[in-house]
């Protein structure tokens, strides 16, 4: 099994006990070992060696500190809210150029911090009454001073799957993908459906195929802005495709030899494989194995 999955393996104690204890949280801020992740908006700032940049807590910086957790040495790790409460650019693609410079653990640390900062930037007003909200629980919640409603960071469940038929799997490409790039089909889980139902629905809506025997493979946090990618497989009942062109530009069935060539980066491969950080690549590697 190809491990670890991208954006997993942060090795931080999330320290929930500090989130609910104001005195312990203040002590963590006062800890001389405490550091803060340096971000440009929500993009990472690369260090001289290519990794993440951490800095000592600046008392002059009035932005709220969000607790990421405690590292193996016992040092508290923080990240700050976005500057001035301004809306952050969640569509910035600068991060894609910088992610390969990070170790798997750093990518996981950054992914959690990015999602948390982005959530705060988008939830400054109460969804119940519209009043401003205030940060609490060490940065893992916002509370409305007007109606008392409490709001907590959420992740959006997304199924991403390989449908298999007679030794081949189905891949697709969206119009915005780079030339030749194909990936696993994916879609958000809708209210009132199970993961298995979401897999079957998405495959039928996007590619017109009916499936059965849906099985779980692995999951991955995906911080763009905050999804949980739930990797699955399914068995297709036929190979005929009816593509929803509002979702996909193209789709095709590929066999193991084609997948191996793409994963190896062969120039003559029939498609370009997803990058190492993506669970779609994990699903392909797992299927080939």
From TrEMBL:
GO molecular function, a single term: NADH pyrophosphatase activity
GO annotation (BP), single: NADP+ catabolic process
Signal peptide (UniProt feature, chain positions): none
EC numbers for this chain: 3.6.1.22
Example of a GO cellular component annotation carried by this entry: cytosol
Residues covered by the Nudix hydrolase domain: 153-285
Similarity annotation: Belongs to the Nudix hydrolase family. NudC subfamily.
NCBIfam families attached to this UniProt entry: PRK00241.1 (NF001299)
Protein's recorded name: NAD(+) diphosphatase
Lineage: Bacteria, Pseudomonadati, Pseudomonadota, Alphaproteobacteria, Sphingomonadales
């Amino acid at each position: 099994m190809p491990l670890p999955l991208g954006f997993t393996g942060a090795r931080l104690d999330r320290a929930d006990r500090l989130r609910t204890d104001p005195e312990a949280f203040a002590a963590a801020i006062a800890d001389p070992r405490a550091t803060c992740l340096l971000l440009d908006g929500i993009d990472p700032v690369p260090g001289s060696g290519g990794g993440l940049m951490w800095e000592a807590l600046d008392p002059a910086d009035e932005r709220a500190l969000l607790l990421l957790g405690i590292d193996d040495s016992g040092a508290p790790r923080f990240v700050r809210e976005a500057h001035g409460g301004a809306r952050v650019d969640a569509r910035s693609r600068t991060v894609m150029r910088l992610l390969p410079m990070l170790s798997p653990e750093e990518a996981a640390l950054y992914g959690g911090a990015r999602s948390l900062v982005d959530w705060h930037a988008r939830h400054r007003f109460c969804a119940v009454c519209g009043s401003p909200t205030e940060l609490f629980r060490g940065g893992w919640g916002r509370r409305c001073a007007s109606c008392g409603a409490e709001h907590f960071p959420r992740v959006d469940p997304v199924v991403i799957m390989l449908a298999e038929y007679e030794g081949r799997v189905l891949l697709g490409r969206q119009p915005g993908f780079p030339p030749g790039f194909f990936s696993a089909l994916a879609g958000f889980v809708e209210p009132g459906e199970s993961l298995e139902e979401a897999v079957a629905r998405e495959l039928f809506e996007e590619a017109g195929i009916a499936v059965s025997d849906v099985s779980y493979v692995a999951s991955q946090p995906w911080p763009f802005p905050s999804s949980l990618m739930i990797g699955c497989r399914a068995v297709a009942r036929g190979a005929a495709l009816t593509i929803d062109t509002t979702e996909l530009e193209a789709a095709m069935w590929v066999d193991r030899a084609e997948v191996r060539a793409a994963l190896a980066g062969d120039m003559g491969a029939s498609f370009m494989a997803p990058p190492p950080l993506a669970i779609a690549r994990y699903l392909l590697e797992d299927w080939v194995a």
